[in-house]
Specification:
By secondary structure, this protein is an all-alpha fold. Helix 3 runs parallel beside helix 7, helix 4 runs antiparallel to helix 5 and helix 5 packs antiparallel against helix 6. The longest helix is centred in the last third of the chain and has 30 residues.
Length: about 150
């Protein structure tokens, strides 16, 4: 940067340095400390995916083995010990299995026990779908972010 840098360049550098946001280390810690607790398996997996996406935005090389990392963390994050054991077995036996397939099997095995018997949507179910829609929208827009960023510069 020279003494005659345009103000926009100076502001961009300052905002990058002092901007509030998560560092890659904080995001990795959040990813590996993910525990299901009282959440549904789907909600837990969506949160893990969102954190993983944020890590990739900051460092694209950081998640080279994304699929296996997500599967392993899902197996560690679920609260049910039987499901945890089955997911670990599944990960070892089927190395090519995608994270989404592993999650779908977990939902099939465990999801029925967590599903309310009534067909009326609950607040939790509605929030879960809203979270899923938000994540799906970010996935759809991801290829266009770079183009939009270049157009606005």
């Amino acid at each position: 940067m020279t003494d005659k840098s345009p103000p926009d360049t100076i502001i961009a550098v300052l905002s990058n340095v002092f901007e509030e946001g998560d560092t890659p280390g904080q995001l990795w810690a959040r990813f590996f400390q993910h525990i299901q607790k009282d959440k549904h398996v789907l909600s837990c997996s969506l949160n893990m995916l969102m954190v993983c996406d944020k890590i990739e935005e900051l460092d694209s090389s950081a998640t080279a083995n994304r699929n296996s990392m997500l599967k392993d963390q899902l197996a560690d994050a679920v609260s049910d010990e039987g499901l945890k054991r089955e997911l670990r077995r599944l990960n070892v036996e089927n190395l090519e299995l995608s994270f989404f397939d592993a999650r779908d099997r977990a939902l099939k095995w465990f999801g029925k026990a967590n599903t309310p018997s009534s067909s009326t949507p609950t607040v939790g179910t509605t929030l879960l779908w809203a979270q899923w829609v938000q994540y799906a929208q970010t996935l759809c827009l991801r290829p266009y972010r770079k183009v939009l960023h270049e157009l606005t510069d």
